[in-house]
Amino acid sequence: MIKRIFGFYALPMRIIARPFAGFYAMKFEEKGTVRLALFNFFLVLLSFAFSNQFASILVDERHPLTINSVSDAFFLIATLLLFCVANWSVTALTDGEGRFKDIVMAVCYAMTPLVLTIVPATILSNFLSAEETGLYFLLMGAGVFYFVLLVFVGLLTVHNYGAVKMVITLLLTIVSILVIVFLLTLTFTLFQQLYSFLYSVYTEIIFRI
Fold first, then answer.
1. Grouped pLDDT means (10 residues each) for the chain, 209 residues
2. Model's pTM, two decimal places?
3. Residue of 54, 55, 161 lying closest to 103 (CA atoms)
4. I want to staple 86 with a disulfide (CB 3.0 to 4.6 A). Which of 91, 161, 174, 176 is the partner?
5. DSSP character string of the chain
6. Angle separating helix axes 163-208 and 69-91, nearest 10 degrees
């Protein structure tokens, strides 16, 4: 049973140890699956929920009643989708070889350092004094840094880009994210105004009848 579990999670661990070889196996040897990638993302959601509930007040000063793990999960899901859609839209115009599925898998597999650091750091935070909280932030920072590095390597591999072109593409991805957010906000505002107008017309008609 344990061997089966470790076999199921072998690729994420391989990506951590040897990023280029791991992502190459995911893309060109078809070792990865969307199911495992989404499972990895689900573990990240659980890790953040655990951190929200059990992190020491020394490292998380938010009032417990203001914490909503469900809304945080929706925010993370929306962020993942937004980034993947933005990156896919940019790379589709810049000869990127990665499919939308490949982008989602690369980003989700790259989250493995977060899975491995958030829960231990959260547990550790409850045993640290105020002067020792730097250890918590060091561990969390290391996980985030390695996650960002793996995203870079993963997207570079699936799109078959060079380093410079990948940096430019990521900058364009950020621009694309801003454009998408602006358009979504504009669309929402227009629909809200349209609804208010139609409702006021309906109310006026009802009162006149």
1. 60 90 89 90 94 86 75 92 95 89 95 94 89 90 95 94 93 95 92 84 74
2. 0.87
3. 161
4. 176
5. -HHHHHHHTHHHHHHHHSHHHHHHHHHHS----HHHHHHHHHHHHHHHHHHHHHS-TTT--S-GGG--HHHHHHHHHHHHHHHHHHHHHHHTTTT----HHHHHHHHHHTTHHHHHHHHHHHHHHTT--GGGTHHHHHHHHHHHHHHHHHHHHHHHHHHT--HHHHHHHHHHHHHHHHHHHHHHHHHHHHHHHHHHHHHHHHHHHHHH-
6. 120
- Residue 56 is predicted with a pLDDT of 85
- How far CA 176 is from CA of 91, 134, 161, 179, 198, in Å, comes to 11, 35, 19, 5, 33
* Domain, as residue range, for 53: 2-208
Number of domains in the chain: 1
